[in-house]
Write a structure and sequence with these properties.
By secondary structure, the chain is an alpha/beta fold. It is built from 18 helices and 13 strands. The N and C termini lie far apart (85 Å).
Length: 452
């Protein structure tokens, strides 16, 4: 393939994941940084599937790469097929290297005792240096690498050769990858020189670390990217968070859209040290995005996480769910938190009459049904006098609070709360009454009175 793109000196980055595991946070951040740099320079990003490890590569892992990028809104401009489909191209380069003497066939004893042939690179044993956009000058003495293997045979290239050939043929101008790729660079530069490929610019981004600065583990967030989606995080928040793992805008802004990132991201300003994965920070950012959502979009997301028993409740409707939005926003950071609230029984009562024992209505140390019944009856009388159009949280509180102070706040507000929610812990009774409205509030107070 003619290397037209490189001749035009257009910025070309590549995201080249290996389908040997699900796309995770670290891989997604690498894809994002490549995408941002390409877009802000009017360039393109290529997606390449590096499946030279045939035994460990799986279709389900590959699918997670496509699905994860799509969910985040990272749009690659070109998809060059899997390395497993480009064998003939690698073979031509291997043959040329053998002809030129930069590679040779070596007969070696395998672990099983059988002799086999491998292709080794003839190491010129020199020093190599390159200028890393993030880390500055990096130098290696490649003599210690020896004559390293670049292919199992003419038709079976290994990682380093395939990567260099692909980057050359695809015209890649900038290689942005994790710092664990630094040690691969000297071998790849040697191969570039051997096949006559121009050297791309390198930028090695910091590893993502756990809060204690140890290697990121599943306990700290090293899980499949799509698991975050399934837990109720929203894509713009994940993109925002990933960008801040190793980079910060000059004005210290925290909430940045994709267009903001394209405008402000600076590869030279990426930090050298490890970037700490902070789940609390991610949840905070996600909550900021939930608050910025329109009522319609919020409800669409929330409904997907609402358990079936709640969606099947008689009083369930999108209208009621929309009305519940302010109360949910006070208690959730992700839509997945809705499931936890539901499991604790803290949501169903918004859509159906709560079930509870009459003893739950008694305030601490009090057990006289007659006195509680009188309190409920008095509350109903006061609330009944409030016009429906004025039945709001502050107005309700204004009318009831003097009575609560006279009789004892716990003695009045506790049974009111339980009558409305059926729970000892819930939003305050003024908030609940305003949510339910005058008719439903009076109906629930009447049900509680009958229990006594």
């Amino acid at each position: 393939m003619e290397n037209i793109a490189q001749k035009q000196q257009k910025v070309i980055t590549r995201f080249a994941p290996s389908p040997t595991g699900f796309l995770h946070i670290g891989g997604a951040r690498t894809g994002l940084f490549n995408y941002l740099f390409a877009k802000q320079n009017g360039g393109i990003m290529i997606l390449r599937i590096e499946d030279t490890d045939r035994e460990r590569s799986k279709k389900e892992y590959e699918n997670s790469i496509f699905e994860g990028l799509s969910w985040l809104g990272i749009k690659y401009d070109e998809f060059y097929y899997r390395q497993s489909e480009r064998t003939a191209l690698y073979q031509r380069h291997i043959e040329k290297m053998i002809e030129k003497g930069t590679a040779y066939i070596s007969k070696e004893d395998g672990r099983d005792g059988k002799r086999s042939e491998v292709i080794r690179f003839k190491n010129p044993k020199t020093k190599i240096s390159f200028e890393d956009i993030i880390r500055g000058k990096i130098e290696f003495d490649v003599s210690e690498l020896g004559d390293f293997v670049i292919a199992k045979d003419i038709e079976s290239p290994l990682y380093h050769l395939a990567v260099v050939v692909d980057d050359f043929e695809m015209g890649v101008t900038h290689i942005i990858r994790g710092e664990d790729g630094i040690s691969n660079t000297p071998r790849q530069i040697l191969i570039q020189e051997a096949i006559g490929a121009p050297r791309p610019r390198y930028a090695h981004i910091p590893l993502i670390l756990a809060p204690d600065r140890s290697k990121l583990s599943k306990r700290h967030g090293a899980v499949s990217l799509l698991e975050f989606r399934d837990k109720g995080f929203v894509a713009p928040a994940i993109v925002n968070f990933l960008a801040l793992l190793g980079w910060h805008p000059k004005d210290e802004s925290e909430i940045l859209s994709m267009s903001d990132l394209i405008a402000q991201f600076s590869l030279p300003d990426v930090q050298k040290g490890g970037a700490v994965f902070n789940m609390d920070k991610l949840r905070w950012i996600n909550r900021e995005y939930l608050e910025r959502m329109s009522e319609v979009v919020f409800s669409e997301h929330a409904e997907r996480f609402m358990p079936e028993d709640i969606k099947n409740a008689e009083g369930y409707s999108l209208k009621t769910l929309n009305k519940l939005r302010p109360l949910l926003l006070e208690r959730i950071s992700t839509f997945g938190d809705i499931r936890e609230l539901a499991e604790r029984g803290e949501l169903l009562y918004f859509f159906s009459q709560p079930l509870y024992e009459k003893e739950t209505l008694f305030w601490k140390g009090e057990g006289n049904p007659d006195s509680v019944r009188e309190i409920l009856r008095a509350l109903s009388g006061m609330l009944d006098k409030i016009p429906p159009e004025e039945f709001g949280e502050e107005y309700i509180k204004q009318k009831i609070f003097p009575f609560a102070e006279e009789k004892g706040k716990g003695s009045v507000l506790w049974p009111m709360r339980v009558a409305l929610s059926g729970l000892p812990k819930s939003p305050d009774p003024f908030t609940l009454a305003a949510f339910f409205g005058k008719d439903e509030t009076l109906r629930r107070l009447a049900v509680a009175e009958k229990k006594l």
